[in-house]
Write a structure and sequence with these properties.
Length: about 160
Amino acid sequence: MGAPFYPTSAFVVEKMLALAGVNSESVVYDLGCGDGAIVVAAARNYNATKVVGIEQKQKLCSIALRKTRHLGNVTIVNANYDDVDISEANVVTLYQSSSENARLKRKLVGELREGSKVVSHDFGIPGWRPTEFRVLKEGHHNQRILVYVIGSNTPL
Ligand SMILES: C[S@@+](CC[C@H](N)C(=O)[O-])C[C@H]1O[C@@H](n2cnc3c(N)ncnc32)[C@H](O)[C@@H]1O
C-alpha cells in the first residue's frame, strides 16, 4: 500500500532534484505527488521539459492543480500510479514506504529505460544499490535521499 500524505519539505525537494541531476532535458514523474511540492520545483526551479504528478486523492490533486496551473509543462493525473504508463520518464521521484518501493520495482524496471534515475526520499528500494546517498539534517530530523539508476541487470 502507498504511503499516506506527508509532504517533502522545500529543502529536501531541492536536494532530491539536484542529486538526480534534473535539468531542461528531464521528464520527471512523481509517483504519489501529494499537493505538488516536487512537481512545482521540478518545473519552476529546474526547468524540466515535462513534469507529471500522479496522485490518487482527489483533494490533493486539486491543490496540486491549483499550484501548477500557470506552469505549462506540468500535468497532474488523478489516478492510481499502478495504472499509469511512466515509460517516458527519465527521472522518477518517490516518497513511499520501503514495502511500497519493493512492490514498485517491477513497474520501474518494466517501464523505465536504462539510465533513468529513481530518487527516493527517506526509504530505500530493497535490494537495489543507490548510486548516491545523502543524509540531510533538518531541525531535529535526519532526512535521507537515495538515487538509483536503472541498468540492464537491475534486480526485481
Ligand atoms: C508521503 S506522500 C508524498 C507526497 C509528495 N510526493 C511529496 O514528496 O511531497 C505520498 C503520497 O502518495 C500518494 N499515493 C499513495 N499510493 C498511491 C497510489 N497507488 N497511486 C497514487 N498516489 C498514491 C498518497 O496519497 C500521498 O499523497
